[in-house]
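forwarding from the other thread:

> can someone predict this with s-citryldethia Coenzyme A?

sure thing
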Amino acid sequence: MNSRAKPAKSFGLLYIRETKIPRGKAVMSETVKIIIEGNEYELPVITGSENEKAIDISKLRDLTGHITLDVGFKNTGSTKSSITYLDGELGILRHRGYSIEDLAEHATFLEVSYMLLYGHLPNATEYANFEDQIREHTLVNEGMDAMFKAFPTGSHPMGQLGSMVNALSLFYPKSLDPHRAEDAIGRTVIRLMAKMPTICSMIYKKRNGHPTVYPQNKLDYVSNFLNMTFGQVTMDYKIDPVLVDAMNKLLILHADHEQNCSASTVRVVGSSQANLYSSIAAGINGLWGPLHGGANQEVLEMLEKIRLDGGNVQKWIDKAKDKNDPFRLMGFGHRVYKNFDPRAKIIKKSCDEVLAKLGVNDPVLEIAKKLEETALTDPYFIERKLFPNVDFYSGIIYRAMGFPTDFFTVLFAMGRLPGWVAQWQELRREKQPIARPRQIYTGEAARVFVPMNQR
Ligand code: SDX
C-alpha cells in the first residue's frame, strides 16, 4: 500500500513505501524521503511488532546538519523496548504481551514482577525459587535504620524513600561496579525488590514514632508488607485478604508504563553506567512530581478541598477550565491515553468493592464520581481528551486501607519498581549509549569580556 503526503513547501515531498511485516518483530523495512534546501535525503523507518512506526533519525544531523526539536518528547521515541506496549487511542496496556486486565485479575504482584524482570510468567518452580531469593534479602542493614533518625520529623516520605534507596549503593559498594557479571547484577535486583517493601514500611513506622516490624519469611510479598506496615511489635496483626487482594491489584496496575517520565529518568541515569540503586533513586525523584506519580496525593488533597468547600463540583470544573486559574483537575489527563486509561477503569471498579468490603464510606468517592461524570460531558475536557488517569481513584483506596495521603506516591513507587528495573536492565543488555540530547541555542552571540570596573 503506498501513501503519499501532500507536498509541503518548506519541507518537500514525503514518500512512504510500506511492506507488511510478521508480528513479533521490529524491522527496518521502509524509508521516507525528505527534501531540505533542495537536497533529497532518505531515512529508514522502524516498524514495531504492533506496527508502530518511527523515522530513524540517528543519522539526520550527519546527513543534513539539522536536528529535530520536540520539547517534552511528545513525538519522540527514546528507545525500542519489549517490556510494555500501550495504545493510547484504544486504551490498551500489555506487559510482555499480557493484558493489564488479565494480570490485575489473575496474577500476584510478585508474579508480574518476575514476568517484567525475566520476560515470561513464572512456572511454580521458578516462582518458588524467586520467592526464596527475595526472602533471603528482606532485612535492611541496621545502619539504614539509624539514617531515619536524621530525617526531620514529618519530612516527606518520597524524599526519605529516594534517600534510602540511594543509600543502598553505600551499603552494597560492589553494586557501584558498572561492569559486574549478569549474576551479580541479578543479586542486586533481588536485593532491591526484597528491601523495597521493608524500607517503605520503615518510612511509615518512623513517621509515627513506632518501632520497625521485621519481615516475616512465612508471609507472601504483599502480606509481609502489610504486616510490617500495620502490624505492631506488641501484638499479632490479622492479615486481611481484602487488603492483600487490593494491594496486589494496585501494585500490578502501577508496575510499568513504557517510557513515562520516571522510567525515562531511570534510563537516562542508567545510561551513564550509574549503579542500579542510584538509577532507581533518580526514578523515585522523578515520580514525586505532582504532574507524575505525585498526582495521587494531589487528587486526594483536591477532593478534600472540594468537600470542605461544600462539594460544588461545577465550581471546580470551571476553575480547571479557566486559563487564568492555576488549578488543574488532578488525576485527569494523560500524555498517551486519548480515550481512557485502562488502569483507571479497573481501579474505579475496585474502589467500590474495597470500600464496601472494608465498610468504609468515604464522601470523597462520590465527589470523585461526580467530577468524572461532569468533566466527561464538558466540551473543554472532551476536546482535550481529558478523563481520569491511574491516579484519580487510587488514593481513595489507599486512604480506605489506612495509608496517609503523602504516602500514596511511595506505594506508586513500590509498584513501579519492577518496571523501572526491567527498563534499566534492557538498556544495559542492549549496551545503549549514554543519553545526551542536543539543543537549539537561543542565547547571546559571542561577546567580549568587560572587567568589573568598566561595566
Ligand atoms: C501519571 O506518562 C505516563 O505514563 C505517566 C503515568 C505512569 O503510569 O507512569 O501514567 C502516571 O503520571 C499519570 C498523570 C498524573 N498527572 C496528573 O493527573 C496531573 C494532571 N494532569 C496534567 O497535568 C496533564 O494532563 C498531564 C501532565 C498528565 C499530561 O500533560 P500533557 O500531555 O503535557 O498535556 P498538556 O499539559 O499540554 O495539556 C493539554 C491541554 C492544555 O490545555 P490547552 O493549553 O491546550 O488549552 O489540556 C489541558 C491543558 O491546560 N489540561 C488540563 C489538564 N490536563 C491537561 N486542564 C485541566 N486539568 C487537567 N488535569
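The pocket of s-citryldethia Coenzyme A is lined by residues 257, 260, 291-293, 295, 320, 328-336, 384, 386, 389-391 (CB under 6 Å). thats all i got for now
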